[in-house]
Specification:
- The chain is α+β, with helices and mostly antiparallel strands and 67 residues long.
- It has one domain.
- It has 2 helices and 2 strands.
- Strands 1-2 form a two-stranded parallel sheet.
- The protein starts with a strand and ends in a 12-residue tail after the last helix.
Length: 67
């Protein structure tokens, strides 16, 4: 199992009701830091998602325009 994490994820949709929120990401991190997961999780460095990757989840018309 691979886990990508960064404090910036806590800011995702802050102030808007959405399933992906600070409470959920922190809760998941807490679960993965314990047995039986702790030895099975491989942390990896985050990177910016491409526009195509963001479009897997979000409608393109709400994505920021590329510069």
């Amino acid at each position: 199992m691979v886990r990508v994490s960064d404090p910036v994820f806590d800011q995702h949709l802050e102030g808007i009701f959405h399933m992906e929120n600070r409470k959920r990401t922190r809760n998941l991190a807490s679960i993965l830091a314990k047995e039986p997961f702790v030895d099975r999780v491989i942390p990896v460095q985050h990177r910016a998602a491409t526009e195509d990757e963001l479009a897997w989840i979000h409608l393109r018309n709400i994505l920021p325009k590329s510069t």
